[in-house]
Amino acid sequence: MYLTSLQARRKLYFHKLRISNLKRKMKRDHIQLSEKEKNHIKELLSNGDIKSRVNLRLTSLLLLNEQKTYKEVAATLQVRIATISDWKKKYKTEGLNSLLEEKPRSGRPASLTDENKAKIIALACSTPPEGYSKWTLRMLAGKVVELGYTDKISHTHVQEILTKANLNLTSKNNSA
Fold first, then answer.
1. What is the pTM of this model?
2. pLDDT of residue 21
């Protein structure tokens, strides 16, 4: 299929427009960190006692400060370009402390306290009900609800709790 000269000119125009938009998107959008901020960030990163998400945010600031593009920073940190852009905007509007603090994440809150989990583990280590040689997960779940540790719990949740405590109901020698 042959293109008319008008179609060819249009195609070329839109191709050039696309390329110029890509170049505009890849422009270097830098930030200028003060020496104090740079030193503070480097100190936090060297301590190693920050969460990995915070580590990524701070590293992105340092890279943007070193005149890297969003694309280069995103490739280095293996995150999306939009994420880098969001972090930069947050830094510009709210400051460095906004990137250091983790906001509460959505989701259902934990239904059991650590104290109740400890009670479940202790119950699993106790002697089983009369007529049974060992506890089953379903019996433990029923007993937990009966004792009022929680309103409801599945046997699989009980298993998760026991597994995290390295407790196995099938072994004869449980060490909690």
1. 0.50
2. 63
